[in-house]
Amino acid sequence: MIGIITSGRPVSRRLAAQKRLAVAAILVAVLAIAGAGRADQPFAPSRDYDLEHSTIRLAFDAEQRKVIGDVAHRIAMLRDGADRVTFDSVGLRMESVTLDGAPARYELTPGQLSVQIPAPARRGDVHTVEIRYDGSPRQGLFFILPDKNYPDRPRQIWTQGEAEDTRYYLPTYDYPNDRLTTDTYLTVPATWETISNGRLESKTRAPDGQVVWHWVQDAPLSTYLITVVAGEFDRAEDTWRSIPLSYYTPRGRGNRIPVTFENTRAMLDFFSTTFGVPYPWPKYSQVMVDEFTEDGMENTSATTLSTRALVNPATAAEHPLREDDLIAHEMAHQWFGDLVTCKDWTNLWLNEGFATVAEYIWEEHEYGRDEADYTRWNEARDWLAQERMYSVPVVYSKFTDSMEYAPNIYTKAGLVLYSLRNELGAAEFNAGLKHYLEKYRGRNVVTGDLLNALDEATSRNLDQFFQQWIYGAGAPSLGIRYTYDESAQRVRLEVNQNQKIEGAVGLFTIPTEVEITTSSGSRRFPIVVSKPAETFTFPADGPPLLVLFDPGDTFLDAVRFEKTPREWIYQLRHAATVPDRADAAAVLGDLTGHDAVVAALVESSHADPFWGVRVQALDSLVKLGGMRARDAMFAALDDPDPRTQATAAALLGVFVHDAQTAARLEAVVRGGKTYRQREAALISLGRIRSPNAYPVLLEAMRTESPDDGLRRSALIGFGELADPRSVPVVLEWAAPGKPLATRAAAIRALGSLDTRNGETTRRLVSYLDERISPIRRAALSALEERDDASAIPSLEAVLNRGDLSEPVEASVRSVVAHLRKSGGSSGASGAAPGRND
Ligand SMILES: [Zn+2]
Prior knowledge:
By secondary structure, the chain is α+β, with helices and mostly antiparallel strands. It is globular.
């Protein structure tokens, strides 16, 4: 699964990553509140029975947001003496429960359905429990419906089971450590599509004119991977090695399917070869749905994705990697997660680490080493910036929500697996994966199973590797310096492990290399770092021009390498790999007062062969400031890569009140190279408070563009500018009936506009009544930012109605708490008319 809430397209991967972190921080705050009600279990429960097969029949009363279900479970008892069997079930109303065809006694608690067995069970007894029920799920199953403001919205019903939410729409055994096969019958209107796990067995017409779709999943899966999607969709079809492929978007957006999914077949080839096991399911569907709670979810043979990831053909060229990372991630899960599944959430990294490393190796294969290296470089920096992750191992059980330490189980685990691949070599690494997948195919695993499989396949004992990176916490924090002994012609390299050895953080043993460059060329020397402090010596036929530790940043660490500005500049200009040049660019951004540093960064910002290093040079120049930095941004507006171009326009947003910057940004808005660059320029124009910003943004509001990108960015720009003249147009676009993504941008802008107007606050509260998640999120964000305490009673009234889903309810509570704390210091009763940063 990838769970992210982002709107709009990132200017660069780095900025995207920062945005993700900001969102993650908000989610953690929200979860802390929601955690009181429920928690994901870190360890698998002991089982009384094996759920072998479920026949699931679902129909829907869409207008009432109601599911009507009938599920027959075939179970085999696993222990003698049990007098009842329990199923997880939340908020569902039982119509009838039978055991082997006879009415059964049962008890219903808020979390479980417990069914009595007349005679004490004997191991091996097989029973069929059939449950008829209905309910209006708060989560797990979602209805996206037209309403009076949006009468043409395509109807969509979709589920999201992970982590423990299948129980909200299906009474079942809801933990990964059991696997079952399924027959799924979905009764829907004749014009609808349905998608579920496995192959489509039949479509038959019901007496009432509806159609019953029968899906058969005959290889076992865990219940969190069950999926049901139904509604009004466009569909496209294809085949790969005689396996049917299908792609769906909500009706009306089918033209985006080809460009979004163009690499699907190549990815299936690549992963089948790399993992050594061909794609293991009878079909592969990728289904885009609106308002999805995640970015993607790897349901077995039928991945669900958010429509936020749909690529618009009109702007596809501006996004060189399209949404390949997401598509590769969910596809890789079809092996790692679905074919072989973690036994419990404590071992969730066995799903997510592999899905993440699969993104890197697909990027490397399709887009080249530099792209993949730059992605890893950024992700490592993101992870290191999150101090909360450092003391917690990848395998960790003390959480309340399985996503609480997501950066460890996704980013760190992905980077560690990449290091392992680097250490073993791709061929041995792949051989290990093949053995692991074959040995545990159709089973549930813990970390030790992977460790043993790798050992069996490669004869490499990886106990220490796993101990330090997976069972242990943190990463090495290295202090490095060197001296050159002219007379002996030797380099003495001192390496200190400076991380605090405490808790789960220990010393690391790291096999790596040192590269020494002198005027006669470069040489590499293998070393193993393992002690708190050690010194290595190497021959060098002259004073080094450059010394690199771990060239290419092959493992996760934080390094402070003492080098002179001159050496860093040499590294920026001459290092062979993207991570080494990007490291140099980043370090140079902290070296103020050196003319040569600025000159080198300016040169790198246009001369480096890789776009991401050029971005990094621009980023550092912004920190050093001054007109030379600004002029480098101006030059980069014409960079050959759309990502660097757009970053330059975004970074110009720091040159507040600068007339020349304003003039250049206005020119980009009107005639920029790409939409994404024009969009970034609109936001920057608001940010720099250009006197002319208001009319330019207003003009952009009248300009049509793909997905309303210019209008949305102009609205964000209005929020930054906080010019009261923009209030009428922002209110107009915040109103019900406007395109949803554009409207959400307008609503967010109201966080900093018209903040003393209680009527606008009331209007924002009223938007919470619409059951549209991006609108609710935008309204909550604006209400929080406005600091208008007059919203509190209305928000409390919304809470008291009790009809919100748990995450929305938690967000409303968090906004109320914020408003109470800030005491309405500004806004309706306060003095500040807007922002003044
Ligand atoms: Zn995932």
